[in-house]
Design brief:
Blueprint: H1 2-6, E1 11-13, H2 14-21, H3 25-37, E2 43-46, E3 51-54, H4 61-85
Antiparallel strand pairs: 1-3, 2-3
């Protein structure tokens, strides 16, 4: 039911989900955490603003940025290690 309720949205309030499911926000949050950890849902919870943000995988802009930053950091680490092994790390 929760998956069907969130499917049309990219961002939805936990309060809305709670009202629709007749659950407290805390209960909704616990269910969502379980679903995210079990990889039944690709999303993240914005606790500060009370939102569920769908599409927390690498297909989102944020996910792509994080992948690019990680790739860049790994490349720099590889170059640094290579230079250090050749004596250029002094």
């Amino acid at each position: 039911m929760l998956l069907n309720l969130t499917r049309p949205y990219q961002k939805v309030t936990l309060e809305f989900l709670g009202k629709e499911l007749t659950l407290s926000v805390l209960e909704v949050e616990r269910l969502l955490v379980d679903m995210i950890l079990d990889q039944k849902m690709s999303a993240r919870i914005d606790q500060i603003n009370g939102y569920l943000v769908l599409g927390g995988d690498s297909s989102t802009v944020e996910g792509k940025k994080m992948q690019a930053i990680t790739k860049w950091a790994n490349t720099i680490a590889t170059i640094s290690d290579s230079l250090a092994s050749k004596g250029g790390g002094n």
